[in-house]
């Protein structure tokens, strides 16, 4: 199928934007209404948009009528508490699908690798329209935490690790990358995640904030990587054995995660 894609993301699949002055903004995310919602780790979400403006996080394709991740409806009770976050999501001028704040509890590297997943943002997306990508705006100050991107889930040589201090901003084709966050803690991490439709508006926004790939990865001991890889293989084998004992087939070796 032929979609409109961002030229800035064509080669690398992600860009890092100029850092936002997070200290100048109120901590609106602390006042939002959160709901329990499974993602890559121990998480809750506060929806700013949803399929019909309700405080819920289901994929738009799970509603009637089913539709792709576009045309999100603002949740009145939450956006009333977060006008700055709403304005930041709207700034690109691109169509917005799901928009919400994630709360992630601390985890470890092996846990993050186990929870690597690809999003399904473009389910039902009509041919010839804009490809859906996601913006990640880190709200809390998690300078020692990283978002992990892998083009191949099981090959660490494809891994990109991007630090997440307060104000870090990146846009990722999350249907291209396996991704999860390794959050070292000790407090919860908060991040604004917005689904945007690719097109000239988003390209102009990326250019305005000098979006470009990260120059190099933060260093990580190869032994730590190998130990975590081994732990992931162990967990997946254990999970597959449990499912097989129940007479089921674990085709993907992983439950669908949506964030």
Secondary structure layout:
Elements: H1 7-10, E1 14-16, E2 35-36, E3 43-47, E4 49-50, E5 73-74, H2 76-79, H3 83-90, E6 96-104, H4 109-114, E7 132-138, E8 142-150, E9 159-164, E10 169-172, E11 178-182, E12 189-197, H5 200-208, H6 222-245
Antiparallel strand pairs: 1-10, 2-3, 3-6, 4-5, 6-12, 7-10, 7-12, 8-9, 8-11
Structural class, by secondary structure, is alpha+beta
> Roughly how many Å apart are the termini?
24 Å
Query: In CATH terms, what is the fold-level topology?
Result: Jelly Rolls
**Low-confidence segments:** none
Number of domains: 1
Radius of gyration computed on alpha carbons: 18 Å
- Total number of strands: 12
- Helix content percent band: 10-25%
Number of helices: 6
Output the CATH homologous superfamily.
B-lactam Antibiotic, Isopenicillin N Synthase, Chain
CATH architecture: Sandwich
Give helix and strand order, one letter per element, not per position: HEEEEEHHEHEEEEEEHH
Strand coverage percent: 15-25%
The CATH class name reads Mainly Beta
Mean of all residue-level pLDDT scores: 94
Query: In which order are the strands of the major sheet placed?
Result: 1-10-7-12-6-3-2
| Main sheet makeup | 7 strands, antiparallel
Shape: globular
Organism: Herbiconiux daphne
Protein name: Aspartyl/asparaginyl beta-hydroxylase domain-containing protein
